[in-house]
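Subject: Cystathionine beta-lyase structure
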Amino acid sequence: MSDTPDDCGPGTRLVSAGRRPEWTGPVVNVPVWRASTHLYADSADLAAGRPNADGHFYYGRRGTPTQWALCDALTGLEPGATGTLLYPSGLAAISGALLGLLDAGDVLLMSDNAYEPSRALAEKLLAPLGIETRWFDPLDLEAYRAAFCPRTRVVLLESPGSLTMEVCDVPALAAIALQHGAISVLDNTWAGPTGFAALAHGVDVSVLALTKHVGGHSDLMLGAVTASGEVHGRLRERAQLLGQVVSPDDAALALRGLRTLGLRLERQTASALAVAQWLQGQAQVAHVLCPMLPGAPGHELWLRDFTGGCGLFSFVLRGRSVGDRARLIDALRLFGIGFSWGGFESLAIPVDPQRIRTSSIWPKAGWAAEDRLGVRLAIGLEDPADLIADLQQALDAMDRA
Ligand SMILES: *Cc1c(COP(=O)(O)O)cnc(C)c1O
């Protein structure tokens, strides 16, 4: 079942991924194996041990068919991958990847558009361990090239960037890292493996917050790291040293989410595009930062490299105050106010990337000095006409004040 030919479409691969008959038995889905102890036949069996590879019962921390099936599914969806490791959250996957690859004395190059907790991890955990982080503007390839030093071991990329949504030339950034002997790690949560084939574009390690699209129902925290060859082996060893394991119930929820991922992403992408197009025509909106939108920053690169979009994008208000923006967000009825995204329900939050940025990227991405107040929308599965009507009444409410 999981041996689906690579030439099948993404929907077909999502349906069959990880469903090996030896794990599913006669039922459709892999059962939830709750287990700590795995019993051995006798003392000789115990003494013989088990190979340290997925697919062999040993002890609960090395997983059961439920976790193996999710790993197998995610590996199968990423062309060129050797294996996948699971972590209890997306952030744990990022820290697992970085702690798995970096040692004291190494330098990490981190894209200036990275997810904010990745920055905090660098400053508050990696720095005290003797790992130095330098930030770079991912749209400035020459400055990026110049930022490498002999101690640069890892590059952390994100595309599109959190909050500001700039699409980066990931193949070029990964190729430059390779020339300098550095390992490239991409936070690929926005597009996922069906929207951006990370390893096929030259990236060494792909990180996903499964919490977002794969879970898809706002009821799961989980992360994954997919890599190939030796890099995967090293990450796997360190994940075991750190004692990383996820619950089989959570793995089963992620597997359930995978089956409908294609359908949800298709709908959310189409709805996001409809909402983005409408927002572009509103006088109160200065910029719409949505890679799927023709003419938006990064659209050409998105067309070149991506095979799908999603419901997450930002827009910037034209010359408004913080109070105006709060009134707009508070007037929304269908959009919840909250972190995370990728669920079936729409969300809105204020975004102020200039607060955390250290390089000059954000003005270049379309944020002028007077138009700085952003709103990030996660478009869910509601009818787009209803979402547009909700935004219309909220913009009206902002103007009336
Ligand atoms: C949410 C998110 C994460 C972290 O995932 P959690 O499961 O919430 O820890 C990492 N990267 C990006 C881009 C995210 O949006």
